[in-house]
Design a protein that fits this description.
Elements (H helix, E strand, L loop, with lengths): L1 E8 L8 E7 L2 E6 L1 H7 L4 E2 L7 E2 L3 E6 L1 H7 L11 H14 L6 E6 L16 H5 L7 E5 L4 E4 L1 H7 L11 E5 L5 E7 H13 L3 H17 L2 E9 L1 H13 L7 E7 L6 H17 L7 E9 L27 H13 L3 E6 L2 H18 L8 E4 L8 H5 L1
Parallel strand pairs: 1-4, 1-5, 6-12, 7-8, 12-13, 13-14, 14-15, 15-16
Antiparallel strand pairs: 1-2, 2-3, 8-9, 9-11, 10-11
Length: 392
Amino acid sequence: MSSLLLGKVFTGSSAEFAEAVVIEHGLIAFVGTASGASSLFPLATPIDIPRDAVVLPGFIDAHCHMCMLGSSLLKPDLVKCKTLSEIKSILLATRAADASSPRLFARQWRFDSLVDEFGRTVRPNKSILDSLFPDVPVYLDSFDLHSIWVNSEALRELGVSEDTQDPKGGSYERDEAGELTGLILETPVFEHIWPFLANQLSDKDRDDGLQRAFDAYVSTGVTGAIDMAMTEEDLSTFERYYTSHNNTLPIRVSAHWLISPAGTETDRVARVATAVSHRARLAKFEPWFRIVGIKIIVDGVIDACTAFMKEPYANGETAGPIWTLEELIPVVTAADRAGLQVACHAIGDAASEIALEALSRASLTNGEQPGRRHRLEHLESITKESPVCVLE
């Protein structure tokens, strides 16, 4: 069974548009002239599209978090806010529209948007949110998703107090008096806040969120995605969707298993083995869904001054890595040996160097590996002397 699509077809391989695409058994069998398509596939069934439409190849989102995307589409967006007043107005309107909701969420606030009535840029603080919402937990995701700004009610239900110890690679920010400010940075976001909030959702909530993400992608021409922080909860959601939709997904998804830095070397390497196990178990889900690698968050982000940089920030602060080189090497080596693609979040110049060093040592240890294609994600700050630049 063949299908024929006629229109202006952009291929990317030529300045000229093609005229026709023939699809056979779910694969593109022909791209070229209309006469060529008719000649080679005379029985192809035409697909009805607008006459002035332009046909593009499907887009692939190379770095996403699909379940989080689905949830975020229900949250008000703060990215265009330039002042605290604008942020407050959106939050108050959101709460007024749904006063019975047990929590208030919003997304994409920026550190440089927290400008008060005197024109001063202030630090996120729970007191700002407490003055508006003293009785409902508030969770505001930062633009880069590496920080969450919460109020006192959220800290209470999270079980976080002044006595709570900061986990490796992150912090519950405190002021000079040792009081929690309500800003949560890096590791506790991924390993405490996200799992806590995920546990407040029903399977239906998660399934509906994933459907919203699929709908958003399909409506914009995305045909494939790389999910960069797969967890047990997210994996279960994908599996439910696959089995309840005739063993298929709307788009193809490849996933990287998120590796926590917590615990001992044995613990961390064991998480690589979990990724390997899931990859084997999910082989029957291909080509729609598969585990292809692991994700390691080596450092933080520039905005929060948590990226691992060689030089101090303008305010004099410094930040270390979430993963040291010594911690990276055995995990990266184990993943490389297993044929998993390693994706290292590395934003600071120092972070990219230790990530690259770990990948290099894994290559030396394991020798030639077929299909080896590891990744450094983001690379926001590198120097001309960086090994990354030298390789380019």
